[in-house]
Amino acid sequence: MKISWPTEQREKRHALIEAVRLTKDDIETHFKESEEQGHLSQATADALLAAGLLGLKLPLELGGAEADPVTQMMVISELASIDTSAAWCAMVSATNVGSAGAFLPDRGIEQVFKKGNHPMIAGVGMPFGEAKKVDESSYEISGKWPYGSGIKTSSWVTAGAKVSQKVNPIEIRAILSKDQDQIIENWDVSGLRGSGSNDFAVESVRIPEYMTWTGDDSPKRGGYLYNIQRPAFVVFGHTGIALGTARRALKEITSFSQDKARRWPGQNTISSNSIFQSDIAQLDLKLRAMNALATQEFEEVWQYAQEGKKLSEKDQAKIRAVGSWVTKESLDIVTKSFQYAGGTALNRNNSLQQCFRDMYAAAQHFMVSGTHFESYGNEYLKS
Predict the structure, then answer these.
(1) Confidence class of residue 85 from pLDDT cuts 50, 70 and 90?
(2) Which of 3, 34, 136, 361 could bridge 194 with an S-S bond, Cβ 3.0-4.6 Å?
(3) Would you say residue 166 has pLDDT above 80?
């Protein structure tokens, strides 16, 4: 769905956050359906599309929001505070929609974004597939890709592939219609169940060159946002996932603690215990510190992008480390909140259990792994 977003940054940020809040009832209503069936409910996907949230990174000229890094983080965080799986699918699709919108040739844009509509796009950019040139204007692609988050409710799928050629080997990103791929039903997990991150495969599918782009291509559309290279380009969303899930867990245990007693001598509720009071204060301050650091660093990235500067190796490593640190500390907030809830949190319908499962699943992603601390430490010591 094409939506006209404000051009001024603060107004756009407010409009996007308000759009998230308008999806809240739909997402909450269909959360159990997503969990039980192991993929995003169609109603939730439709709500995300109708709100225009999948155009978060889409170039303005295609009707997208082309939001700055902090706004991206805030939008995904707001979604994660409702349902982490829905936020995860929105994050992945927004990146794929934005990349396709920025890099596809015009003929590809005409097919994927027909009549200005913004589709839901799943996919994996890593070159797990193989492609060969069939003629001057098409490729044949085969392969299997893991973790196609949101694939069952998507209209299109992106797939990274290495092109088999003796001279100047390249990697391409291909975009295929939903009926060209085979979904492998292997998403049977505890966390992020509703994301439906099944593997997918294609076998000898022929695609025109105008439905592909390479990692070396310059963006054909879009402004400052596309001056930000990967992997920083995708860290903002992962950071939002962690912040929103931690915020939800903290809110849940705060509410729960005021009604629940845990048999401490002389104490009526968890909230009246001094140890809990100390812990909840520190968890709140930790959440505020994480948000402040991420905001500061992502604002700096945006300033660089507006000045046409490329991030240095050290800056790239720092941004990845920020995402990893926020995720690591969010795990602590979620874990402690879960533990304070006691046996009640073991109930499948308990929100803290969902936060616990989803946060640990999200933290398994390589983009927020602990290896990024090592990379940043190495770059930091060089300076």
Answers:
(1) very high
(2) 34
(3) no
For residue range 278-326, what is the model confidence (pLDDT) as tens digits? 999 999 999 999 999 999 999 999 999 999 988 899 999 999 999 999 9
The pTM assigned to this predicted structure is 0.95
Average pLDDT, rounded, for the chain: 94
Residues 6+ apart with CB under 8 A from 312: none
Contact between 176 and 143 under an 8 Å Cβ cutoff? The reply is: no
Dump pLDDT digits (tens) for 322-358: 999 999 999 999 999 999 999 899 988 899 999 999 9
Same-domain pairing of 14 and 102: yes
3-state secondary structure of 194: helix
What was the pLDDT predicted at 76? 98
* Pair (243, 355) in one structural domain: yes
Cα angle for residues 18, 19, 20 (degrees, 5° grid)? 90
Yes or no: say if 43 and 29 are a contact pair by the CB < 8 Å rule: yes
Among residues 116, 140, 162, which one ends one of the domains?
116
Single-letter amino acid, residue 130: E
Dihedral of alpha carbons 310, 87, 65, 20, sign = negative
Angle at 298 between CA 80 and CA 150, to 5 degrees: 35
What's the domain range around 44? 9-116
Sheet holding 212-214, edge to edge: 182-184, 198-208, 138-148, 121-135, 156-163, 171-177, 212-214
Number of domains observed in the structure of the chain: 3
The alpha carbon of 333 is separated from its chain's Cα centroid by a whole number of angstroms, namely 20
Let me know whether 238 and 313 are in one domain.
yes
